[in-house]
Amino acid sequence: EMGKLPSVSEFQPLPPNRGWAEKFDEHAWFYLHVTVPQAKDGERISFFMENEPGVHVNPQSVVYIDGALVSGMDCNHYEIELNEAGEHDIMIYACSGAPRDFPFRFPLITNFSLKRIDLKTEKLYYDLLAPLQVLGYTQEYSKEYADIMDKVNRAVNLVDFREIHSKSYEETLELASAYLRDNLYGNYYKDNATVV
Fold first, then answer.
1. Mean pLDDT across 16-38
2. Helix, strand, or coil here: 50?
């Protein structure tokens, strides 16, 4: 029954790497008791629900934290930011999804985790991801392709990867993002925009 949460005593342990669905339109409840650490400056703590790689189904879920409905989750919406440090009960009602016209694989294995997200690292990741995705729609041997690759390579080369989360790493993340802002997003696209 969707309106009523199950009792914690009704749950049984789910061993790691064991699937919870063998076919489409199967339903399950999950329960996790988590200790959320205090986020440091420049980071956030998030809860992730991720399917094993290669699973071509889109399970739909609703997530309750401490008894309150907080979000829906699926393969495109798999993160919930947890702003309050401390002990929390998470319950998830999941459906394995509806049949699709592409290959799929069962059993469905889903992993749950808490992760610290470094905001500067995440920003640079998306600053780099966008032009790399644009390359998929750009003629490979064109000047535009070469220009974008050059800017991406220059930005990556600015980052000091010798010690992740060191002062130098953090400072060079900002340099790389600023380089892309000033030399790719701020100027290149302004002068080379295509409107369809």
1. 90
2. strand
**Which of 65, 111, 69 shows the shortest CA–CA distance to 86?**
65
In the block, tokens 């696209």 appear at 189
29 within 8 A of 6, measured Cβ to Cβ: yes
C-alpha atoms less than 13 angstroms from C-alpha of 179 in its C-beta half-sphere? 19
Residue 123, pLDDT > 80, answer yes
User: What single string gives the DSSP state of each residue in 77-123?
Assistant: B-EEE--S-EEEEEEEEEE-----SS---SSB-EEEEEEEEEHHHHH
Q: Which amino acid is at 43?
A: E
Q: What is the DSSP letter of 59?
A: -
- Average pLDDT of every residue of the chain: 89
Cα–Cα dist 144/189, whole Å: 10
Q: How confident is the model at residue 121 (pLDDT cuts 50, 70, 90)?
A: very high
Among 154, 188, 189, 187, CA closest to 172 = 154
Confidence at residue 1, expressed as pLDDT on a 0 to 100 scale: 46
Structure confidence at residue 52 (pLDDT): 72
